[in-house]
Amino acid sequence: MSSRLTWRERLLPVLSVALSIAALVRVAWRRTLRHPLVPAWSFLREWIREVQAATLQTLCSVRPAVARSQPQLGMGRDVATRVASESLMLAEVPAARIRPSDAATELDLIYLHGGGYNLGSIESHRELASRLALAADACVWSLDYRLAPECPFPAAVDDAETAWRELISRGLDPDRTFIGGDSAGGGLACALLQRLKMRGLPYPRGAVLICPATNAVTWGDSMQRNARFDFLTQDMCEQWLDAYLAGHPADDPLVSPQFADVEGWPAILIHAGGREVLLDQIEDFARHLSDHGVPVTVEREPDEIHVWHLLGGYSREALASVERIASWMRATAETGPSATQLDSRARS
Question: Catalytic one among 306, 309, 315, 321?
Answer without folding.
Answer: 306
